[in-house]
Amino acid sequence: MSGSLEVRNLHKDFRLRNGVSFSTLHAVADASFAVEPGRTVALVGESGSGKSTIARIITKLETPTSGEVLLDGRPTPRHATREYRRQVQMVFQDPFASLNPFHSISHHIERPLRLHHPGLSADQLRSRVVELLERVHLTPGETYLERRPHELSGGQRQRVAIARALAPGARFVVADEPVSMLDVSIRVGVLNLLADLQRAEGLGVLYITHDLATARHFSDEILVMYRGRIVERGPSDEVILNPRHEYTRKLREAAADPDRLGQLRDEVRSEMTGGPA
User: How far apart are CA 222 and CA 163, in angstroms?
Assistant: First the structure.
């Protein structure tokens, strides 16, 4: 599919050791979908459903057992090249761990600029860093240049991580649970920022989350994952308001009660197989 980031028939198995024997975990099974510029696709499911494994495959942090990732309709190299990394960037879940505490904010954003735009002068680098900081609403940008990550709030750190992802000139951003470790009061602000950047710059965003409410509000399409498979997909409102798969219905029912999320897999497995999990 031209002009898109596509995963096609993706499988990922992990070999697990149980004492002296081995077993196979099918983390992702036959996943296919596409993220187009200017649109957000939400990949929704509980922990262990395979969402983050897909994110790591797309960003070349894992290799698939089979299947492929295509960029603009062409298969991508097995390992990330500089050009692929320039176009496909990731915003990690933990803004506390994704930034090096020993380096300044300026250093974190200058590094991808130097790598992907080596012709920039020192003045151009500084100007570009300030511009990126202000694009993620850290203003005035100059006041953040020499700060260290520990001097910023969690929300500000995640904004720095987004600026760093934009620095190479990314066309697609994989946001893996980007607000789950932030205070509830600042989550919407970070998600609104991603939505604004998507619209303004035509970014394609893969938003990975367990939160159906934000998935509905911030995405054009929702894909629901259960035990490594995409079991339901469609326009956001349609999936949330008229769920067809039993797991989606259970996930929606549990959304208001986080304590029930851990029970979903056993409940759904029992209902789908007609017996206890």
Answer: 25
What is the DSSP pairing of strand 5-18 with strand 66-71? antiparallel
Q: Say how far residue 126 (Cα) sits from the centre of its chain.
A: 28
Q: For residue 262, is pLDDT > 50?
A: no
> What are the boundaries of each domain within the chain?
5-242, 243-277
C-alpha angle 109/58/43, rounded to 5°? 100
241, burial (CB in 10 Å: exposed 0-12, middle 13-18, buried 19+): exposed
| Predicted TM-score of the model (pTM) | 0.87
Distance, in Å, from the CA atom of 22 to the CA atom of 260, rounded to the nearest integer, reads 31
Does pLDDT of 274 surpass 70?
A: no
Q: Any idea which architecture 5-242 has in CATH? A: 3-Layer(aba) Sandwich (3.40)
Q: Is the dihedral of CA 219, 220, 226, 228 positive or negative?
A: negative
